[in-house]
Sequence to fold (251 residues):
Amino acid sequence: MGSILTAKDLCKTFSNESVQQHVLKNLNLSVEQGDFTVIMGNSGSGKSTLLYALSGMDRPTLGSVSYQGEEISGLGSDALAVFRRKHCGFVFQQNYLNDTMSVLDNIIVCGLLVGKNRRAVAARAKELLKQVGVEEQSFGKFPVQLSGGEQQRVAVVRGIINEPEILFADEPTGALNSQNAEHVLNLFTDLNRRGQSIVMVTHDMKSARRGNRVLYLKDGVITGECILGAYESGDEKRHEKLRGFLQEMGW
Fold:
């Protein structure tokens, strides 16, 4: 279907006084339209740094990131903000909800920022909230009145409310119990089946199985790739293939 996102010779270095930490090292990566790409690796391998560089949340030190053939890594801050708002959705491990706004308004405001109709955005928000298991009586509550798991599910809906062309997720189920994580993963799978491109960082094997491919990052370099294909519930061969791959990678 063609690449939606491409990284070429990507490097990211953090400097602290006389010490330099090379987090990403000449990394090359292509994400195809409709891919559900999962990035795994041990703590400190550069997973989140890579996600932020790919999404325009952070600038690479060297190399380039291109979106549908257009380089974005050289854009100014304002242009990058417009790019992210127009094309990307984000789900982080921390939910970053606004505690002064209701659950529903936290989501609706994202649609209004891109000029969408409030009534249409509200209707879609309610539908998605129900899909991830947030009950209707919680729609008017403030985030602080919800459990941590409920807050994260609201953040997931906020990330996909504008039907982004590509969704970036950094440990999106890290704060959820198994049942709520399943709600979120089912939603991601459903979105991907409809053509949603997703790039997800996770340390959780159950979450990783949802991707059609898994990349393993070690010391800022992609050291392996496991092609899983389309997700099907109960596919034990898929589980064993991923387990074997991760063992080979030293996970």
Notes: Residues 178-193 form the longest helix (16 residues). Helices lie at 47-55, 77-87, 103-113, 118-131, 148-160, 178-193, 205-208, 236-249. The chain is about 35% helix and 25% strand. The longest strand covers residues 3-16.
